[in-house]
Amino acid sequence: MGSLARQAIEAAPDLEYAGGYARQRHPEERIYDDLERLLLEQRPEVLVDFTGRPAAQNAAIASVRAGVRTIAGSSEWNDAERADLASECEARGGTALIVPNFAIGAVLMMRFAQEATKYFQGAEIVEMHRAEKRDKPSGTAAATARKMKAGGFDGEVAIHSVRLPGLLAHQAVLFGNPGETLTIRHDSLSHQSFAPGILAAIRGIASLPPGLHEGLECVL
Predict the structure, then answer these.
(1) Which residues are part of the catalytic machinery?
(2) Spatial separation of the C-alpha atoms in residues 62 and 45, rounded to whole Å
């Protein structure tokens, strides 16, 4: 995802790649192994981060403290970590955006599920991802369940997680009433499905007020 973000930024005529952060340093490509040094020397306007816990949480805090708008692409955030980041944003007047899924279709899938939930008696989520994905349920599934609860669903939304070779990122929300079912499904078949959302987040985060925000829909 980090490589995809860099490629998308470099191909965008209105954006400039300031530098990257990875486990191994590559000075000729402006890739650092020290995030604070990257923030200090390159002074980016926006940080887009795809590391996992605890690196994602540390990177977001460091970025906000450096006065850099922060986009967190990891879904591995709990309520306490969200609260810590929100507190840091409030103290520094910073802006952070947590994005569980950068695919435009996935955002629409969640929106449609929230709309449909008030009309059905039962609903469950089946999320299917690559075998290497660590978090269960996925951040997208958890975000979908929260939106369905906010939309008026009465009861817990069961989430089923599948991890198999050959999958990338897929989710189906199944609704049921007596005599009928409705399935709302999204499939990311290539990592390229995330590039437009990454660019939308980078371009749109400056329009958000200071504080912590969640979901790509904030900038769409």
Answers:
(1) 129, 133
(2) 14
